[in-house]
Amino acid sequence: MNITDVRVRKITKEGKMKAVVSITLENEFVVHDIKVIEGEKGLFIAMPSKKANDGEYRDIAHPINSDTREKIQSMILAAYEKAVEEAGEETVE
Fold first, then answer.
1. Count of helix runs (H) and strand runs (E) in the chain
2. Are 80 and 22 a contacting pair, CB within 8 Å?
3. How far apart are CA 74 and CA 87, in angstroms?
4. Whole-structure pTM over 0.70, yes or no?
5. Percent of the chain as helix, strand, coil, to the nearest 5
6. Residue 60 needs a FRET pair 20 to 30 A away by CA distance; which of 29, 34, 52, 80 works?
7. Angle at the Cα of 42 from the Cα atoms of 39 and 47, rounded to 5 degrees
8. For residue 13, what pLDDT band results from cuts at 50, 70 and 90?
9. pLDDT tens across 41-67, in order?
10. Are 47 and 60 in contact, with CB atoms under 8 Å apart?
């Protein structure tokens, strides 16, 4: 599985969510609404989710192993940092 496109929409208002991202897999399948979040240990991604009847949020789509999650997160965070640099902003460590 190859990620063939990453589109970053930066969030301008203050808060922990820094961007919303869409990725394209193999030029054939798109996953929207992946969030870039600023956490205590740095940036991470949150997969698209919806609120269940019990009030908990459940992922709609997500990788099923840690290697795939790391691959997706690395590509998204690299694209986010590039977008920030192009805008002349500072990145979050």
1. 1, 6
2. no
3. 20
4. yes
5. 25, 40, 35
6. 80
7. 60
8. confident
9. 999 999 999 999 999 999 999 999 999
10. yes
In this structure, the number of other CB atoms found within 10 A of the CB of residue 2 comes to: 9
| 25 contacts 4 by C-beta, under 8 angstroms | yes
Structure-token pair, residue 17: 């969510």
Position 70, amino acid: E
What's at 53, amino acid-wise? N
Show the tokens assigned to 66.
């840690």
Task: Determine the average pLDDT of the residues in 25-35.
Answer: 96
Structure tokens at 72: 């997706």
Q: Which amino acid is at 18?
A: K
Token pair for residue 39?
A: 């956490």
